[in-house]
Specification:
- There is one protein chain.
- The protein is an alpha/beta fold and about 450 residues long.
- The chain has three domains: about 70 residues, no CATH class; about 120 residues, Aspartate Aminotransferase, domain 1 (Alpha-Beta Complex), CATH 3.90.1150.180; about 240 residues, Aspartate Aminotransferase, domain 2 (3-Layer(aba) Sandwich), CATH 3.40.640.10.
- Helices cover about 40% and strands about 20% of the residues.
- It has a seven-stranded mixed beta sheet with strand order 4-10-9-8-7-5-6, with helices on both faces. Strands 11-12-15-14 form a four-stranded antiparallel beta sheet.
- β11 and β12 form a beta hairpin.
- α6 packs parallel to α14.
- The protein is globular, with a radius of gyration of 28 Å.
- It binds pyridoxal-5'-phosphate.
- The site of pyridoxal-5'-phosphate has 15 residues, from α7 and β8.
Length: about 450
């Protein structure tokens, strides 16, 4: 074939591709702009194949587009059923919000509000006043500010108080917080210099003492919230650090991460609470809103009045400020803590479930599925649920799961089928057995889970 003839044949094949409209007609019902995008991408793919010398039939083009369309709903954010037993699951949205929290979000978001408007004077108000008041009462702090998450809290604190100065941190506390973010990188973006001291497993008071210099602005203690250093270890407590820092005229900052408000809970063991850290002498404590507090994603910095005011006045505060929906959910969360109604926070409701209750639910669910399936083995099993989300490392909570195995379908395949359903169910695997943990499974989700198991294993 001469080159011109080859070009003609190529052009003919390219021209024989269907128009965008015809591809769209063969797709399921999708938003128009999405369908156009998928059709164009499929046609681009077909053109590339043709130019590479392949033949592409109409059916193949349509197949390409249909596959992309089938992927589409899974790319959208969608509710999933958490059967992992991990209660604070960062990849699944940390913690669910309850009725009171959601009602507050809705009431504020659907209209105008006094977000930053003082109804008494008719002038500009303070968007953090409500949260601050509640935090002061709950934690004994003199004041507090709220930002988008705890990483932002650390960032703005160091930027406002330690810019171009040194912050002393133990090497045993330089942590990665997931998603490849490392706290030391967040800290240095503030313009502060990290002065690392001690070793991974042992840091002594003398290490801190030696490191304090004229350029020091603060000691930063970081709670090892997602790991535990065990064995031959040495850390310095808040009281000792506070005495040292204050004697030398610098601040003690404490990144607490998990943000336990109430010390009185059996399950949380020796997890330090915000109130205790402040009481023991930390000037500022930083923590997340969506870990043990049980609220929306946000970061809280609480502590002494003067440093809080310097943080509040820093320009980064404007860049890191949470929106009205977050603040509405946070205010509602803090109200529940103040009212002693933490059982209305889904996280704490999950924690409060007794092992007996979970055993009964697991047994009933297993039985209802088991009687409808022949080959699969479905049974209740005692397991351990964890807090997750960088909270309470090493603290387990006894739980019950529905354990699923099948002679012909492997655990990974069962897990995949559960995950790729219309209402995805996320389960965990232990020793080749799929486990659906009742600690995080909501009672209203059980019918859906039973139906899913029967569907994917029949
Ligand atoms: C979770 C955690 C963070 C990060 O908090 P985000 O709210 O996710 O930004 C930082 N420090 C510690 C100690 C944590 O546990």
């Amino acid at each position: 074939m001469k080159p011109e003839e080859r070009d003609d044949a190529l052009n003919l094949r390219l021209r024989s591709l269907p128009p965008v409209g015809q591809v769209i007609e063969n797709l399921p019902d999708l938003p128009h702009a999405v369908a156009v995008g998928i059709a164009r991408a499929a046609l681009d793919g077909a053109r590339a194949l043709i130019r590479a010398g392949d033949e592409v039939t109409l059916e193949e083009v349509l197949d390409l587009a249909r596959k992309a369309a089938a992927e589409h709903p899974r790319n959208a954010m969608t509710p999933v059923i958490n059967a992992t037993g991990v209660m604070i699951h960062t990849n699944l949205g940390r913690v669910p919000l309850g009725r009171a929290q959601l009602d507050a979000v809705r009431a504020i978001a659907e209209g105008y509000s006094n977000l930053e408007y003082d109804l008494v004077t008719g002038r500009r108000g303070d968007r953090y006043a409500r949260a601050r008041q509640a935090l002061v009462t709950l934690t004994g702090a003199e004041s507090a500010v709220v930002v988008n998450n705890n990483a932002a809290g650390v960032l703005v604190t160091l930027a406002a108080l330690c810019f171009s100065k040194e912050v002393i941190v133990s090497r045993g506390e330089l942590i990665e917080i997931g998603g490849e973010f490392r706290l030391p990188d967040v800290m240095t973006s503030s313009g502060a210099t990290l002065r690392e001291i001690g070793t991974t497993n042992r840091t002594h008071l003398a290490d801190y003492e030696r490191a304090i210099a004229p350029e020091s602005a603060a000691i930063l203690k970081v709670h090892p919230s997602n790991y535990r250093v065990v064995g031959f270890t040495q850390v310095v407590g808040v009281r000792e650090l506070a005495r040292l820092a204050h004697g030398r005229g610098i601040l003690l900052l404490y990144d607490l991460g998990s943000g336990l408000i109430d010390d009185e809970r059996e399950w949380t063991g020796d997890e330090p609470s915000v109130a205790r850290a402040l009481e023991e002498g930390a000037d500022l404590v930083m923590f997340s809103g969506d870990k043990l507090l049980g609220g929306p994603q946000c970061g809280i910095v609480a502590g002494r009045m003067d440093p809080i005011e310097r943080i509040a006045a820093h320009p980064l505060m404007r860049a890191l400020r949470p929106d009205k929906m977050t603040l509405a959910a946070l205010d509602a969360t803090l109200e529940l803590h103040l009212a002693g109604r933490t059982d209305e926070l889904p996280l704490w409701a999950m924690v409060a479930r007794t092992s007996n209750e979970l055993e009964e639910r697991a047994a009933a669910l297993a039985a209802s599925v088991s009687e409808r399936l022949e080959a699969a083995k479905i049974e209740a099993r005692a397991v351990a649920a964890v807090a997750g989300g960088g909270s309470l490392p090493g603290t387990e909570l006894s739980s019950w799961a529905v354990a699923v195995t099948h002679p012909e379908i492997g655990a990974a395949e069962i897990q995949r089928r559960l995950r790729t359903r219309g209402r995805p169910i996320v389960a965990r695997i232990e020793d080749d057995v799929v486990l659906l943990d009742l600690r995080t499974l909501q009672p209203v989700e059980e019918t859906e889970v039973a139906a899913a198991l029967i569907d994917i294993l029949s």
